Amino acid sequence: MVMVRASAASSGKHNKSTRLVILCAALFGFGLIADYLWASSSGFNSISRWVSVRNSQTTQIIVPYKTPPPKVTAEESKGKEKSDTQDGSGRFLSATFADLPAPELEWQRMADAPVPRLDGAAIQIKDLFYVFAGYGTINSVHSHVDIYNFTDDKWVGRIDMPKEMAHSHLGMVTDGRYIYIVTGQYGPQCRGPTARTFVLDTETKQWGDLPPLPFPRYAPATQLWRGRLHVMGGSGENRYTPRLEHWSLAVKDGKPLEKEWRTEIPIPHGGPHRACIVVDDRLYIIGGQEGDFMAKPGSPIFKCSRRNEVVYGDVYMLDDEMKWKPLPSMPKPDSHIEFAWVVVNNSIVIAGGTTEKHPVTKKMVLVGEIFQFNLNTEKWSVIGKLPYRVKTTLVGFWNGWLYFTSGQRDRGPDDPAPKKVIAEMWRTKLKLNS
Ligand SMILES: *[C@@H]1O[C@H](CO)[C@@H](O)[C@H](O)[C@H]1NC(C)=O
Ligand SMILES: *[C@@H]1O[C@H](CO)[C@@H](O)[C@H](O)[C@H]1NC(C)=O
Predict the structure, then answer these.
(1) Rounded CA separation 1/405 (Å)
(2) CA dist., res. 160 & res. 170, Å (int)
(3) Which residue has a Cα nearest atom 6 of ligand 1?
């Protein structure tokens, strides 16, 4: 089992001025125009190429792939570079894109979700898993919730969302009955956000609303803490600029107790796609990124174009003192994990995500590891491998099983770049480190 100390991880890797330069460069249009977020899925690698699949009555048991050494093909490196960790000048590059050694887990394939989704959201309430919204393809978005029951392992229901609700990059949290749904992107491609904010009563399946956020955000960190709905960070209206603002609103039983959002202590860095978790009356924010795809200027369909992104693995905690305290960083930078976590036995468990882009190919690199942050010891470890690398996956835990569904998976064991948007649901017996 690999234990990773704080100092081995990514904090401090990008100093402030480097980041500023990178951000400015990207803002002024040096960002890469990308097609590879949304590659056509025609050449989807058959699963049997890299896992051995055995059919049982209703599920498939698979043995996950062996991690291949990271590799750059001749075509990818265009003959410029000698290896993936050394550039032409002999300078060694960061290897955070590489898979980390991780124990093999036995995965079972369960029933697919009714639709594939990317950048969706999920909330677990007891044995029900509510899976919201998301892109189906880059040009279409979902406007409904699918519900999975972990006890009988079936998709059991569907709820339509209000028409005004965002379709991706939502902030979302529950108190155990009411689900609060905050801001997010409205529409497909890289369209603009809405500040509208909603509540779903899961008992009556009725929707209500809350005062809109002061400004719309993409994928802000969102939690309920001490009777208040907290929303922080995310990207601003242009989908790219990291925002630091932090607001809160007193809520109870699905109703706002105040008319306006209150300004709170800003978060240490802004940007979308970090995990935000409350355990034992402490609020944690983990990972995430600065920067994101933006709409191509002048594009009538708001076509997504890639800009530079910086991915973080750092962790901050807020307690009584209302000051952010740094904690040990993740074993590698990790983003797109806002609904990819569960808390089990005083450990935070996070599955998949995206890490820093490949230093040579510049392609987006997905994460295939499962991480554990033990809150007793404040230590991270890598506790297993997913059946494939996947980002914005939606994670639940029931009766000893760790589940994940949805997201965008890799191109295969040799290529960690994103490809197919999935509907698959998988589970494995969760084994935590003590
Ligand atoms: C989930 O399914 C089980 C078995 O059918 C059922 O007993 C349980 O009530 C369901 N959960 C909810 C919250 O409806
Ligand atoms: C959590 O703790 C309980 C009680 O000690 C134990 O039975 C269970 O196996 C633990 N769960 C995991 C996933 O480690």
Answers:
(1) 26
(2) 16
(3) 151
Q: How would residue 88 be classed by pLDDT, with cut points 50, 70 and 90?
A: very low
pTM for this model (two decimals):
0.82
Report residue 398: phi and psi, to 5°.
Answer: -150, 125
The rounded distance, in Å, linking the Cα atoms of 257 and 211 is 10
Give the ligand at the shortest distance from the Cα of 127: 1
CATH classification for the domain delimited by 2-429, as one of 2.120.10.80, 3.40.190.10, 3.40.50.620, 3.40.50.1950: 2.120.10.80
Write the DSSP symbol of residue 234. B
Specify the pLDDT at position 96.
59
E strand residue ranges, 280-333: 282-286, 289-290, 294-295, 304-305, 310-311, 315-318, 325-327
Best of 342, 343, 344, 345 to mutate for ligand 2, by most ligand atoms within 8 A of CB?
A: 345
Cβ neighbours of residue 52 under 8 Å, at least 6 residues apart?
Answer: 62, 63
CB burial of residue 347 (10 Å; 0-12, 13-18, 19+): buried
Contacts of 281 (CB under 8 A, 6+ apart): 225, 226, 319
Enumerate the domain spans of the chain: 2-429
Instruction: Tell me the CA–centroid distance for residue 51 and ligand 2, in Å.
Output: 29
Query: Could you say which ligand is closest to the alpha carbon of residue 347?
Result: 2
Query: Residue 398 is encoded by which pair of tokens?
Result: 């029931």
